[in-house]
Design brief:
By secondary structure, the protein is of the alpha/beta class. It has three domains: 179 residues, no CATH class; 80 residues, no CATH class; 151 residues, 3-Layer(aba) Sandwich (Rossmann fold), CATH 3.40.50. 44% of the residues lie in helices and 15% in strands. The chain contains 19 helices and 13 strands. The strands form three sheets. A six-stranded antiparallel beta sheet has the order 1-5-2-3-4-6. Strands 10-9-11-12-13 form a five-stranded parallel beta sheet, sandwiched between helices. The longest helix has 19 residues. The C terminus is likely disordered.
Length: 437
């Protein structure tokens, strides 16, 4: 059995394997797996892969039940993350490692090696297997394009545990549906949390602030945090969601110097309050450079972003005073970006000015409908842009800072209520070993 995922989805494939009580290996491969739909659903599920990359997964079955599932990169990094929760830090010698990586499932072989040496208990190994299967299925059930092959025949031996497909599918599908509700604040399990608000001490208990600082060191993505904490990715995402929603914690797609470089290029850091920060989102670099050439000499800190997907994440971290956003862009257009930002409290009242070559009434009306503050038609002149920017920054300055403090920096009670609706940080305690490492 083989085919493409646009012809049959993963759920149906797994149900067929269960129905036929098949034994064998399912191999799934996806290249350039990011495939945003107009509803934005897959954006909420898949990693924003700016550089297309190939990914693959293996799922092993015995008589219609799942034995194990793992990522096809053949590394043991995921298993090391799970082992770290149990404070197991065994590292293989090169000869042992070479023998394992030659297998179809090196993680599974490593687990049995640790079991044989009594380093890992059967209970711990079963827990790791279950979490590995759930994590893999969470990714697979989010795919809508790719190819698959089911090779019926031999499977992994010996077997420590098996998972029934139907109840496992039901649980993971529920997680996938709940994950969609976290968008656009949380877009990917591979995003890195970064603490950007240093004034938390006055609003939150010291213990909560301490935990947030440990969580948001930008050294590991949400997916890896979930492994260390022995929780599923949805639980971890729900726990951190209120802080992302209020703007205290931002999520970035990779730990790169992009944001720091942009801050240095603008001449100021995030802590500066002397100049207004303006972000221009336009896939055409010439437009961004034009905006910078007009606004920077007037004392505005101007940052140009030409990747709309990356910009959606970065604006949460950059915290601008005004956003200029092009409409006609690939992958995410300006209407979608504006609508997504308006769902966040931090951007509910921020001036968002749409830039476009279209001057029709319908386009202007649509811009208003998604929450745009105003509309500027290309090409625009120096004075035209300056007048519009000064108009909205003049009225969004002290006025918004005073009137909208609750939206950007909500009170302790508001945060408490928000956390109550989601998962609480106290439900996911961090060990001292995790914090130090």
């Amino acid at each position: 059995m083989q085919g493409n995922l646009n012809e049959i989805d993963i759920r149906s494939i797994l149900q067929l394997i269960e129905l036929g009580q098949r034994t064998g290996l399912l191999f799934v491969e996806a290249y350039g797996i990011y495939n945003r739909t107009k509803s934005g659903e897959e954006v909420a599920l898949r990693d924003h892969s700016y550089n297309e990359r190939q990914q693959s997964w293996f799922v092993f079955f015995l008589n219609g039940q799942i034995i194990y599932a793992e990522v096809g990169d053949r590394s043991l990094s995921r298993l090391y993350d799970y082992l770290r929760h149990y404070k197991i830090k065994v590292r293989l010698e090169e000869i042992q490692l070479a023998s394992l990586t030659s297998l179809n499932a090196p993680e599974y072989g490593y687990l049995w090696m640790l079991l044989g040496q009594n380093i890992l208990s059967p209970t711990q190994a079963r827990s790791i297997i279950h979490r590995s299967v759930h994590e893999t299925l969470f990714d697979l059930l989010s795919l809508h394009q790719g190819s698959f092959i089911f090779d019926q025949g031999a499977t992994l031996v010996p077997q420590l545990t098996t998972l029934e497909i139907t109840p496992t599918l039901t649980k993971v599908l529920q997680q996938v549906q709940e994950w969609k509700l976290l968008y656009p604040h949380i877009q990917s399990a591979d995003q890195f949390p970064v603490l950007v608000d240093t004034g938390l001490q006055s609003s939150l208990p010291a213990a909560t602030v301490n935990q947030l600082q440990h969580w948001t060191n930008a050294k590991m993505p949400l997916r890896q945090l979930a492994r260390y904490l022995n929780r599923d990715i949805l639980t971890v995402a729900k726990a951190i969601y209120p802080y992302v929603q209020t703007g205290w914690v931002q999520l970035v797609h990779s730990v790169t110097p992009n944001v720091e470089t942009q801050k240095q290029d603008s001449g100021l850091g995030l802590e500066s309050n002397d100049r207004r920060r303006i972000v221009c989102i336009d896939d055409e670099t010439t437009c961004g450079e034009l905006v910078k050439s007009i606004l920077q000499p007037q004392g505005y800190e101007t940052i140009a972003l030409n990747n709309p997907l990356e910009a959606l994440s970065l604006v949460f971290q950059l915290q601008p005073d005004l956003i200029l956003c092009d409409i006609a862009m690939p992958e995410l257009d300006g209407y979608e970006i504006c609508a997504m930002l308006r769902q966040s409290r931090a951007f509910r009242l921020m001036p968002i000015i749409m830039l476009t070559g279209k001057s029709g009434f319908i386009d202007q009306t649509r811009a208003r409908m998604v929450g745009a503050t105003d509309y500027l038609t290309k090409p625009f002149g120096h004075n035209e842009l300056l007048i519009l920017v000064e108009k909205y920054l003049h009225y969004s300055g002290v006025k918004n800072e005073k009137q909208d403090t609750r939206l950007v920096n909500p009170s302790k009670n508001e945060v408490k209520n928000s956390i109550t609706e989601s998962a609480s940080l106290s439900e996911i305690s961090l060990s001292s070993n995790f914090v130090k490492e």
